Amino acid sequence: MPAVLVTRAMVDEAMNALQGHCDLDVYTGPPEAIGRDEFLKRAKDKDGLLTMVSDRVDAELLDAAGPQLKIVANHAVGYDNIDVAECTRRGILVANTPDVLTEATADLAWSLILACVRRVAEGDRFLRTGTPWIWGPKMMLGHDLYGRTLGIVGHGRIGQATARRATGFGMRVIHNSRSGGVSFDTLIAESDVVSIHAPLTPETRHLFNANVFRQMKPTAVLVNTARGPLVDEAALASALRAGEIFAAGLDVFEREPEVEKSLLDLDNVTLLPHLGSATAETRAAMGLFAVENLLNGVTGKRPRGLVNP
Ligand code: DGY
Fold first, then answer.
1. Is residue 44 located within the same domain as residue 150?
2. pTM for the full model?
3. pLDDT at residue 101 tops 90
4. Boundaries of each D-isomer specific 2-hydroxyacid dehydrogenase NAD-binding domain copy (predicted)?
5. Is 224 exposed, middle or buried (0-12, 13-18, 19+ CB in 10 A)?
C-alpha cells in the first residue's frame, strides 16, 4: 500500500475516507501543527503528502521525502506554501481543493465587511468591559453600505462570489485583476470597501502598502481573507491610527500565526484566526477533495485538483 503522511488530523469524514487505502501516518501533535524538523523526518519514504497551508513544501522537504514521492495534496485552494516549480521539475504532482470553499470564504469576507463598517466586534468588546452606557445619537457610528462601492481585488472564484453578495446590499461593484476590470489605482480611490481575493505571488506581496492607504478614502474599509503578506501590516496599523482609512478586517496575517502587535490595540481592526473556510460542511468537502487528490496521485491517476502547469 502507498505510504502517506497527513500533517494534521482532518474532520472525521476525510480521515475515514483514507482508511484501508494507504499505509497512513497522521501527525497528531503535540504541538498542534507539525514542526519543521518533524515534517522533514516524517516525510521520508512517503509516496504522498497531505499538507496544510502552514506546511512549507520546498526543495529541502522534497529532498528529505525522497525520489519516490508522487504527490503533494494541499488541504486548501491556496498553494503558496508549496514550491510548485520545484515539484514540477521533479515530476511531483501538486493538487489543491478549489470550488468547495468558495461560498464559505465569501461569507466570511462579508462577516468582516459588516463587522468593520458597523463596528460589531468593537461594540461587543465595549459591552464586555462593563462600562455604563445608554443609547446615544452619536454613539459608535459606522458607515452605510447601500449605494456605495465595493472594490474586489482578484476576480477569481471567491472574488466573484463575494461580489455576487453585494447585490443584496445595493452596492456598486468594481474589480481589478490580471485579466481586467478597472485599474488598481481607480479601484482604491473609488471603493468604500476593498476586499482582497488575489493569490500571494512575488507581484502581490505588499500590494497594500503605505502609499496605497494614503490613496484610499478615509471612510474606506479593507478586508483580507486571501493571504496575509498581500498587506504591509505595520503600514496598515499606521494608516488606521492616522485615520487614513476607517477600519480593517483581517482573517490572514503577514507572519501567520503571529499577529502584528501594533494592530492589537486598535479598536478599528477586526481579527479572525484564518477562518475563511471554517464551516463543518466546507471542511468535510475540502478534506474529501484532498484525500481524493492524494489517493489518485499515489496510484498514478490524474488528481482533479491538479495545479502543475
Ligand atoms: C485556502 O484554502 O487557501 C484557505 O486559506 C485555507 O482554508
1. no
2. 0.96
3. yes
4. 111-276
5. buried
